[in-house]
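Students often ask why we bother encoding 3D structure as a string. The short answer is that it lets us treat folding as translation between two languages. Here is a chain of 164 residues written in the first language.
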Amino acid sequence: MTSRYILPFFALILVACDSGEPGKMSMDEYEGPEGEAVVRYLITHLPPVDPQVPKVYTVVKGPNLKSTKMPFVRRMEDLKVQFISGEVLTLRDPDKSIVDPRSGLAPVQIQVAEIKHAGGDNFTAVASWAYKKTWERYKLKLVKSTSGLEVKECERLEGNYVPQ
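And here it is in the second language, the structure alphabet:
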């Protein structure tokens, strides 16, 4: 009698463990070396949007824009940019723009939307940047090298940034 309950029980456990997409990493893993490589690439390849204005950066992850932890961004202090937690950002009226409450500056938002394991030491990621109302989204291919993970391909998916 109990054997007929065991099979459905194990089936439910297997279904609960499935992420739904093969190779897709959990959002907690986005703050690992793969996410760091994506953020470093986006910051170093960011186009010159509003170059005369000082910038602050915030890093978010996933489709719901969950803020990353500060120890994650502190690993990138060598980039010499100022990071702020997404949890402290505020909305400024009347246009409901997002600002750093300390400086009043609009942050450059870096989003690590998705990271998937693509086999071996390869990964694919979807990431974007946004500054005020200007943004771009990319598909990136990461490969492991002797110095760590590196972005080898970058494909622009969409956005409204127009180089001047």
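Translate back mentally: Residues 57 and 83 are 5 Å apart (CA to CA). Keep this in mind for the problem set.
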